[in-house]
């Protein structure tokens, strides 16, 4: 269910990027205005994460995810009402506000359902759904647009959320209340760890080095993924003259590679850990491998062959998704599950702020005719800088010293102990 939620999230999100060259010609916005439209989404995403993390911590994944999915699906369909750059900016703002809750809810659900050593692989699996959405979009959106018009494309993608909500409400329960989860399974999920269940106030979460380490790494690397989503169709159109009818296959190849990278990157720490490496060190080594694989991206704007660019970009997006699966999982490594949603929200907000700044800069760089090479060069360096920041500030992913308040133990059916 998390996999398909991530797929719908990115299907809705990518429609604008695919239609950007078409809409730019028909509506007449400039590169800078497109940067503002993308920035509106990311600014709202940052605001939404302030609320979304606490929403899912307070209401739980089951109810919280329904509210989140419903809101962004309506906002997605609202794009069909836009007829100017301002109208698209407003629609993107509300879409970002709703979509902000998807990953905090998914990471919290993962922390509830899986033991620590399995979470990065699980995150990699559901996070690969973002790539399925990105793969499905180039196959579906051009066909709908050519057949029925661009407004129909926004309406069609918004309907998938309603189907998912029915499925989620009918099937999802937390492991503590699930009738098919045995006591031994629940003990395996908790791994005998005692964790505070009381929520930690935001003011206290911001006092932890681990919060700032995660937020800093997101600030540096999230903008690169948004750049891929919103500017790759424009890059292929400008550099190789690939229009709406021919852009699909290159993007499908790139996002297929990124889906594989998400799962492989999530599996890598488990392999290192089984070889005898501590879990925190395994996570950091996996992130280092991903950061190094992204370095060739600085060549993407210089190669003359479309498929050479596709190969370089596919490797970079695959490595980003592997990086992202591990970066998300560092939160549940460092914090109790009761605070995971809030910390992911804080980090996501920082990533969105970085993305707003990068989107505005991208519009200005391209409008000034500097081309894509400076942007790809920034993308190449961001991950190694982010990893260094994470390692130094979080002290090697050291567990946050959260005071024990109300504590949950692994005995699922017996009396609860309190300190």
Task: Walk me through what this model shows.
The chain is mostly helical and 419 residues long. It has one domain (2-398): MFS general substrate transporter like domains (Growth Hormone, Chain: A), CATH 1.20.1250. Helix content is 76%, strand content 1%. The relative contact order is 0.17.
Strand order of the largest sheet: 1-2
How big a fraction of the residues is strand? under 5%
CATH superfamily: MFS general substrate transporter like domains
The rounded distance between the terminal residues' Cα atoms is: 36 Å
**Average pLDDT across residues?**
84
Tertiary shape: globular
* Global structural class: mainly alpha
Number of separate helices: 15
Briefly, what is this?
By secondary structure, this protein is mostly helical.
Please specify the SSE layout and strand pairing:
Elements lengths: L1 H26 L3 H48 L6 H15 L2 H12 L5 H30 L1 H9 L1 H12 L11 H8 L4 E2 L5 H4 L3 H32 L7 H27 L4 H16 L11 H29 L5 H28 L5 H21 L13 E2 L11
Antiparallel strand pairs: 1-2
Helix pairs in contact: 1-2, 1-5, 1-6, 1-10, 2-3, 2-4, 2-6, 2-7, 2-14, 4-5, 4-14, 5-6, 5-11, 5-13, 10-13, 10-14, 10-15, 11-12, 11-13, 12-13, 12-15
Key terms:
419 residues, mainly alpha, Growth Hormone, Chain: A, two-stranded antiparallel ribbon
């Amino acid at each position: 269910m998390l996999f398909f939620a991530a797929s719908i999230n990115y299907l809705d999100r990518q429609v604008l990027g695919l239609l950007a060259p078409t809409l730019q010609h028909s509506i007449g916005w400039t590169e800078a205005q497109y940067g503002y439209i993308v920035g509106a989404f990311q600014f709202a995403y940052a605001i939404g994460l302030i609320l979304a993390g606490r929403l899912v911590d307070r209401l739980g994944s089951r109810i919280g995810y329904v509210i989140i999915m419903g809101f962004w699906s309506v906002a997605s369909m609202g794009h069909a009402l836009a007829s100017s750059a301002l109208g698209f900016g407003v629609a993107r703002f509300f879409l970002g506000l709703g979509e902000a809750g998807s990953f905090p809810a998914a990471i919290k659900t993962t922390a509830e359902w899986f033991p620590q050593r399995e979470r990065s692989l699980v995150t990699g699996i559901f996070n690969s759904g973002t790539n399925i959405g990105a793969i499905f979009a180039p196959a579906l959106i051009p066909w709908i647009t050519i057949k029925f018009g661009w407004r129909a494309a926004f309406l069609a993608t918004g309907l998938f959320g309603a189907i998912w909500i029915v499925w989620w409400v009918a099937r999802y329960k937390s492991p503590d209340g699930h009738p098919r989860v045995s006591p031994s399974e629940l003990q395996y999920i908790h791994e005998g760890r005692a964790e505070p269940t009381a929520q930690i106030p935001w003011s206290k979460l911001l006092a932890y080095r681990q919060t700032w380490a995660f937020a800093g790494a997101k600030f540096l690397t999230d903008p690169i993924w948004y750049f891929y989503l919103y500017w790759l169709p424009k890059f292929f159109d400008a550099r190789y003259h690939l229009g709406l009818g021919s852009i699909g296959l290159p993007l499908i190849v790139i996002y297929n590679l990124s889906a594989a990278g998400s799962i492989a990157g999530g599996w890598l720490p488990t392999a290192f850990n089984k070889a005898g490496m501590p879990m925190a060190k395994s996570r950091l080594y996996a992130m280092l491998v991903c950061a190094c694989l992204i370095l060739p991206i600085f060549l993407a704007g210089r190669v003359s062959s479309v498929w050479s660019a596709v190969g370089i970009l596919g490797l970079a997006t695959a490595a980003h998704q592997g990086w992202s699966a591990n970066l998300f999982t560092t939160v549940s490594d460092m914090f109790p599950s009761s605070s995971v949603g809030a910390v992911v929200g804080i980090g996501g907000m920082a990533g969105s702020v970085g993305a707003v700044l990068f989107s505005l800069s991208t519009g200005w760089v391209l409008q000034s005719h500097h081309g894509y090479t400076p942007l790809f060069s920034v993308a190449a360096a961001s991950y190694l800088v982010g990893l260094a920041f994470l390692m130094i500030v979080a002290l090697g992913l050291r567990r946050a010293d959260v005071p024990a308040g109300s504590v949950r133990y692994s005995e699922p059916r017996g009396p609860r102990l309190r300190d």
